[in-house]
Design brief:
The protein has about 110 residues and is α+β, with helices and mostly antiparallel strands. It is built from 2 helices and 5 strands.
């Protein structure tokens, strides 16, 4: 059996005196990313043993609400695409994409 290769993604959260996120950076050397600044992140991890998802949601205190709405819309679209790749469930993927369109329409994200 060969040696297992690994890849590392690092997140660094700078906190203010009240422990509110003030700065968020991430690095992924394999992807050529080094200490890139971000304003928000969502991370979900599947715990197979307990059959539950665990999540970390972080956004900096200067993340604009209008950008947060776009971030959520783009994340929902990406989740729809990932769901299709993972399950090949075309019917539910179409339903998810319909919701993404509805979401964008209600938030007036699409012109």
């Amino acid at each position: 059996m060969g040696k297992l290769q690994t890849s590392e993604i690092r997140l660094k959260v700078g906190l203010d005196e009240n422990r509110v996120p003030e700065k968020l950076t991430w690095s992924a050397e394999d992807g050529g990313i080094n200490n890139e600044e971000a304003k928000a992140m969502l991370l979900s991890v599947w715990d197979s043993k307990n059959q539950e998802s665990l999540k970390i949601d972080i956004w900096t205190k200067d993340m604009p609400v209008d950008e947060m709405k776009v971030f959520f819309h783009q994340t929902l679209v990406a989740m729809s695409n990932t769901f299709m790749k993972a399950t090949q469930d075309e019917k539910m993927t179409a339903t998810m994409k319909d919701f993404c369109d509805y979401f964008a329409e209600k938030l007036e994200l699409k012109k």
